[in-house]
Specification:
single chain; alpha/beta; TIM Barrel; globular
Length: about 220
């Protein structure tokens, strides 16, 4: 069984203090830092781009888990790699050629993530599983923080876990969207081993992020 890892989303942090927020997360036991990149086009919100990620890179040696919710994504992959992304996650709907985008991330020596929205079927990635390092299952519709968890996506996680075992593959299964102390248990039971959480980590228990990370890990 894969070790449970926590990837806090800085989308829920204090944007005027992002460098310090990342330091706090590292000291609190985060395994990686989840960076949500939105373009106001592929999803209805806008966040940060490569210059901000590059500026934040010096604050930690933790893995930068960069989720690109931008379209067209392919031409920007190298920019995010150069900015310091360690994992680059793309949506199949955001590229004209998923195979080419996966190959480009691999060529840049970064880990490849592919994200599936709640309505996206896993069939779209079955032919690429040997090339993928991480599958990000969205448990909300991407674009905004603070949405309610959609339990129906757990079936996808169960199927992917079964496929991983049957084919003896090693990709991580990550889940993002409305993760709290209750549904994190369901996600882990289904087969997720990386939990993305923003609001729960930054706001629960009076903002005690160390306690919140520990509680999610022990779900």
């Amino acid at each position: 069984m894969k070790k449970i890892q926590i990837s806090p989303s800085i989308l829920s942090g204090d944007f005027s203090q992002l460098g310090n927020e990342i330091k706090r997360l590292e000291e609190a036991g985060a395994d990686m830092i989840h960076v949500d990149v939105m373009d106001g086009h592929f999803v209805p919100n806008m966040t940060i781009g490569p210059p901000v990620i590059k500026a934040l890179r010096k604050y930690t040696s933790l893995i930068f888990d960069v989720h690109l919710m931008i379209s067209p994504v392919h031409k920007y992959i190298e920019d995010y790699s150069n900015a310091g992304a360690d994992i680059i996650t793309v949506h199949p709907e955001a590229t004209d050629n998923l195979d080419a985008s996966i190959s480009k991330i691999k060529d840049l020596k970064r880990k490849v993530g592919v994200s599936l929205n709640p309505e996206t079927k896993i069939d779209i990635i079955l032919n690429y599983l040997k090339k993928i390092d991480l599958i990000l299952i969205m448990s909300v519709n991407p674009g905004f923080g603070g949405q309610k968890f959609m339990p129906e996506v757990l079936e996808k996680i169960k199927k992917l876990k079964t496929i991983r075992e049957e084919k003896k593959l090693n990709f991580d299964i990550e889940i993002d969207g409305g993760i709290n102390f209750e549904n994190s248990k369901l996600a882990i039971q289904a087969g997720a081993n990386i939990l993305v959480s923003g609001t729960t980590i930054f706001k629960s228990n009076n903002g005690d992020i160390k306690k919140n990370i520990e509680l999610l890990k022990s779900s």
